[in-house]
Amino acid sequence: MTDPGRSTSRPPAEAGTPPPEKVKAALEALLLVSSEPLSPRRAGRILGLTETEARTCLELLAEDWRRRDGGLEIVEVGGGFRLVTRPEYDEYVARLEPSRVKPPLTQAAVETLAIIAYRQPVRRADIERVRGVRCEGVLGTLLERGLIEEVGRADGPGRPILYGTTRRFLEFFGLRDLSELPPLPEVDALRDDGEGGAEGGTL
Hints:
Layout lengths: L19 H14 L6 H8 L3 H18 L3 E6 L2 E6 L4 H7 L10 H13 L2 E2 H8 L4 H9 L3 E6 L7 E5 L1 H7 L11 H7 L12
Antiparallel strand pairs: 1-2, 3-5, 4-5
Helix pairs in contact: 2-3, 5-7
């Protein structure tokens, strides 16, 4: 049975398919102007390649940039690939564009974000039960920074909002997907506390 998430047939190109020697250059151009991670599926659709071919080209291109050892690199995060500055040059980028550098997350924000990441979808009441304090302000900050979002409503009185992480969360922490979240000792305790997340929610 074919995996519907990984196309093997060649899609029609939105523009002329570049010659093989120009594919990497075309991908560089797409990565530069893309406002979000460039998925292999979308890259393949644009360039007239299969998703598998596009992924292979993106991975080879990322390796090329790693060998250059310059100020930029291509990383796979949030379901796609991005052209980004290397972390060791953040200090200089901040001098040029101070407004692009956001203050680090507070300990309260990190704790709240961890609970959401491992228990999503999760209600505010469950987050507050785990942390032992109210968290409206922290949730507002995480929503404003695009690290979490409202993903639905739970059953029950008041139909409370359910929260989950976003693609921006994956980019922020350099994760390809949620399966790359590191295991935490606290997770087993949260799973066994008998409270659960949202109705039917799992870690």
